[in-house]
């Protein structure tokens, strides 16, 4: 498994759909995952440390987990099937480990709120379109500009 961090959010230049960019700090590879507008907003609120007057959905989930004395151990982008990414949220509660199926965008939004690590399996890395040596934003921009419309159907997932 590869430990990754959220490098940022960007917009697909053709569809204007948000893309979350996960980056492996060791290898400098980046994994783009197309997500929904609401999920992008949830991630952006946390990245920018913007407080909301009332808890948003991911804040509520964090509060429920903590209310039951649980801890988010990690989130894992675990699979890519039929052009859709899958993730798991791994929680420890009362010395038990619980794995919960999730969309990657929701898992990432929760990981950011709980300061939990984000991992991507080797299987996902091998079957995804990875940006190698994404050491700067220009490399990511070039990659996005070179995308063709037929590439989009391959990477739904949010």
UniProtKB/TrEMBL annotation:
Organism: candidate division CSSED10-310 bacterium
Protein name per Swiss-Prot or TrEMBL: Bifunctional nuclease family protein
Domain BFN: 1-132
Pfam families tied to this protein: BFN_dom
Biological classification of the source: Bacteria, Bacteria division CSSED10-310
Organism superkingdom: Bacteria
InterPro entries to which the protein is assigned, alphabetical: BFN_sf, Bi_nuclease_dom
Signal peptide segment: none
Gene3D superfamilies membership: Bifunctional nuclease domain
């Amino acid at each position: 498994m590869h430990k990754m961090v959220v490098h940022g959010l960007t917009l697909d230049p053709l569809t204007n759909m948000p893309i979350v960019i996960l980056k492996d700090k060791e290898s400098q590879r980046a994994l783009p995952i197309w997500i929904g507008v609401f999920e992008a907003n949830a991630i952006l609120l946390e990245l920018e440390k913007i407080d909301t007057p009332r808890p948003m959905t991911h804040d509520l989930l964090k509060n429920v987990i903590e209310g039951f004395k649980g801890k988010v151990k990690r989130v894992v982008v675990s699979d890519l099937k039929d052009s859709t990414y899958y993730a798991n949220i791994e929680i420890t509660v009362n010395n038990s480990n619980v794995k919960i199926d999730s969309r990657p965008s929701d898992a990432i939004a929760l990981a950011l709120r709980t300061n939990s690590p984000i991992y991507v399996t080797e299987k996902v890395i091998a079957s995804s379109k990875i940006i190698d040596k994404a050491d700067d934003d220009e490399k990511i921009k070039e990659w996005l500009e070179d995308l063709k419309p037929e590439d989009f159907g391959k990477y739904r997932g949010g």
